Amino acid sequence: MRSATDHVAQALALVEPLGVERVPLASALGRALAEPVRAAADAPPFRTTSMDGYAVRSNEGAPGLWEVSADVPAGIAPAPLAAGTVARVMTGAPMPDGADAVVPVEDTDRGVDRVEIHRWPAAGAFVREAGEDLHRGDEVLGGARLLRAVDLAASAAAGAPDVSVVRRPRVGVLITGDEVRPPGSALEPGQIFDASSTTLPALVEEWGGECVGVRVVGDTDQAVVDALDSLEADLLITAGGVSAGAYDVVKSALVPHGVWFGPVAMQPGKPQGLGLWRGVPIVCMPGNPVSVVATFLVVVAPMMREMLRLPSPAVGTAVAGVGWRCPPGRAQLMPVRFEGVRVVPATAGGSGSHLIGSLAQAEAFAVIAADVSEVLPGDTVGLMGITP
Amino acid sequence: MRSATDHVAQALALVEPLGVERVPLASALGRALAEPVRAAADAPPFRTTSMDGYAVRSNEGAPGLWEVSADVPAGIAPAPLAAGTVARVMTGAPMPDGADAVVPVEDTDRGVDRVEIHRWPAAGAFVREAGEDLHRGDEVLGGARLLRAVDLAASAAAGAPDVSVVRRPRVGVLITGDEVRPPGSALEPGQIFDASSTTLPALVEEWGGECVGVRVVGDTDQAVVDALDSLEADLLITAGGVSAGAYDVVKSALVPHGVWFGPVAMQPGKPQGLGLWRGVPIVCMPGNPVSVVATFLVVVAPMMREMLRLPSPAVGTAVAGVGWRCPPGRAQLMPVRFEGVRVVPATAGGSGSHLIGSLAQAEAFAVIAADVSEVLPGDTVGLMGITP
After folding, report:
1. Which residue ranges does the record assign to the MoaB/Mog domain (chains A, B) (predicted)?
2. Pick from A43, A105, A189: which is nearest to B77 by CB?
C-alpha cells in the first residue's frame, strides 16, 4: 500500500508553478502574490505635519501672539515660511520651507490672522520627514502569500496600482455514479445525494483556484472520457468510481490511459487514482463527502499551492483532549474541534468516511501517523487547517 | 475623550440584524448562516455496504463455494437475497433484504457466477444501517457562522439544496481630500496616494459585506453631501476630513446633520465621527492607511458582524516577545507578527498611523488597554484578527 507521504510526493511531481499576470488592486484580494511590490515614491512624499496646528521656526520664539502668514491645507505646495510668522497647517499638509515644528491647535486660541500660542514646541515636534516611512524602491510587500486587504492597503499607499499575481489554477471536476442525485431531489431506493458537486468547487475557490466546470455522469466509460475531454483545465479532480468494485467506472476508464489506481495508506480516502489525462494532472478520489474533503486537503491542496507558488499547507500540532482508536497501518485524518486549547473528534463517530455531521462541526483535521494505533488523552497530534 | 469601548457600543446601537434570504449552495460560500440546516432524509438513506464484496446471510454458512444470485451496483433497489446464495455488492449499494453482513472482495476469489469465500463474516460486518449517520430532520449545520466549503459539503450530503443566509451588508465608501491621487499617478508637490479606495472595499469584502460604491471627492461640503446621497447603502464609511483642522470637510458637512465628531481614546484612529446620515449609520475615520484599518477592525467589523447576526470578532490573548511604549490614556492597536508563539511589533516603527509597511507585515493587531503605559516582554496582550 502506498504511503500518504509517497502519494503526495507523486502528486506534487505532476504539477508546476503557473504563470504570472498583473491585476489591478481592486481585483487582487485573495490572489497569490508573485513578485514583491516596491514603493513608487517616498512615504510620506514630502515633509508633513502629523497634527492640525501651526508650523513655526522653533528657534525663533516663545509662547505669545503670532502673525499667521499663510494657511496650508493638504494638497498644496506652500511658500516658504516668512520669518517671524507662523503658518496654519492641516494634518498631512506639506511643511513650509523654514518651518521645523508644529504647535498643535489644542495649544492655541485657534486664531486665523493672529494666533495666541500657549506652549512652544521643540524642533521636530509633530513633523514627519519625507521618506520617514518608506523610500522609493523599498519593498512594501514580499513573500509568497494570498493577498489580504491589509496587503492591498500597503500596496496602494506605496503607490502601486497593480500587482503581479500567479494565474489561478483552473480546476475541472467530474462526479460519477448512477446513484447520485442533486440535493433537493426525492430519492428513489438506492439513491444518495450528490455532495461532491457542491464541495469540490467550494474547496477549489477557498484554496485560490477557479472551477472551470462540474460534470456529473453515470457509470459508463465513455461518459467519463467525454466529460473529462470537455473540461479545459490545469488540474482535474474526480469523485467516485475508484475502488475495487466491478462498476468502478473512473478506474476502468482511466487505467487504459496509464492513470495509477490503488490503495493509499490513509483513512478516509484509501482508494485513489493519480496520473495524467492527456497531459493534465488528474486526482481521483472516493465519492463520499468526508473522503472528498480529506483527499482534497491532503493531496489536492498541496498541488494547488505548488501551482500558486505558495508553500504547502502547514501542519501544526495540538494536544488531544480525549483518546481515540486509529486504523492499523494507515494515516488517519480525524475531523476535530477545539475544547479550550485541546482538540477532540468533531463528532462522536470518529473518522469514518460517511460521517456527514463531522464536517460541519470540524474546526481542523488531526493527522495521525500510520504507525500509531491509538491516540491517548494528552498526546500531541498533527493539525491541518480546513481553509488556507 | 470618549473611550474606545463606549464608542464601539454607540456604533453597535446604530445597526440592526439584516434580513434573511435563501441562496443555492453554489453561491453560499462565505455567507452568514441564518437558520439551521436539517437532513432531508436519513443518511445513509438505506442499509448499505461500506465495502465492495458479497452480501450474505451470516447465520447461513461458512467459508466455501457459494452461488452468486445477484449483482448489486450502487443506485438500484435489489431483490431480497435468495436463501443459500450470496449477492455481489458495490460500495454504497443497498443491502438486499435478508442479507446482514458483507464479505470484502479481498476475502474471496472475486467470482462472478460462483465465488470462493475464504473468511466468513460476523453479523453486521461492513453493513451501515439506514440513518446511522443522520436521521431525517436532524440538524446538520447550525450556529452563526460564515459558511465554509465543509459546511456546504455537509448541507449537500444531507440533501439541502439551498440555505438561509443573512443578506450581505451593502456598504458605501467615501474618500475625501484634495491631496489624494490614485496609486500609479505622478504625485505633484503636496499630494499623496489614495490607499482607502483600495483598502475599504477589500476589508468590506473580507468581512462579508458588499461594497456598493466608492466615491472620491475634493474638500467641499457639497461634494461630500452629493456623494453620500449617491450611495444606496446599509452602512456608510468615510475616510479623511475628520480632525480639528479648518478644512476637515467631512466634519463640516456632517455636523449640521447631527453626526457626532470628536476624539476617541485609541491610537491610531483618534479623530472620528459617528452617527446617521439620512437614517443610515455612518462611520467617519481618519484617512491614513493604518488608521483606516484599525478603525475598520475596531468599529466597523463589529457593526457588520451585528448586521450579519454573527458574534463580535473575538479578542484573544498573546504574550509579547518584546516591550514597547503605549500612548497615555488611549487604547493602542499595534500591528504585530508572530515570532514563535510570541508577538512583536510588525515593524520597528510601532503603531504610528503612517506606517504603511507595518500593514503588510502584520499577522494580527495587539490591543493594549488605555491605562497601560508600557508593554513589557512577557506581558499578556489582547489579540485581534485581521481577517474574520
Report:
1. 172-306
2. A189
* A351 confidence band (pLDDT: 50, 70, 90): low
B198 contacts in A (CB within 8 Å)?
A: 25-26, 152-153, 155-156
Q: Which residues from chain B sit within 8 angstroms of residue A185, using beta carbons?
A: 159
CATH of A20-43+133-166, one of 3.60.21.10, 3.30.457.10, 3.90.105.10, 3.40.50.150: 3.90.105.10
Looking at the partner chain, which of B105, B189, B244 has a beta carbon nearest the beta carbon of A105?
Answer: B244
Residue A379 has pLDDT above 80, yes or no: yes
Whether the Cβ atoms of residue A76 and residue A107 lie closer than 8 Å to each other? no
Fold of the domain built from segment(s) B315-384: Beta-clip (2.40.340)
Query: Is domain B2-16+168-307 annotated with CATH 3.50.30.10?
Result: no
Quick: pLDDT tens for A47-89: 999 888 999 999 988 999 999 999 987 778 899 999 999 999 9
In chain A, residues with a C-beta closer than 8 Å to the C-beta of B22 are none
Q: Count of CB contacts below 8 A, A vs B?
A: 321
Closest partner residue to B150 (CB to CB) among A78, A182, A293 is A293
CATH 3.90.105.10 range(s) for chain A read: 20-43+133-166
Tell me the DSSP string of A27-82: G-TTPBB-S-EE-SS-BSSS-EESSSEEEE-TTT--SEEEEEEEEE-TTS-PPPPP
Q: Find all residues with CB under 8 Å of A388, minimum gap 6, and list them.
A: A146, A206, A207, A208, A301, A305, A313
Q: Which of B135, B194, B356 to mutate to test the interface with A (most CBs of A within 10 A)?
A: B356
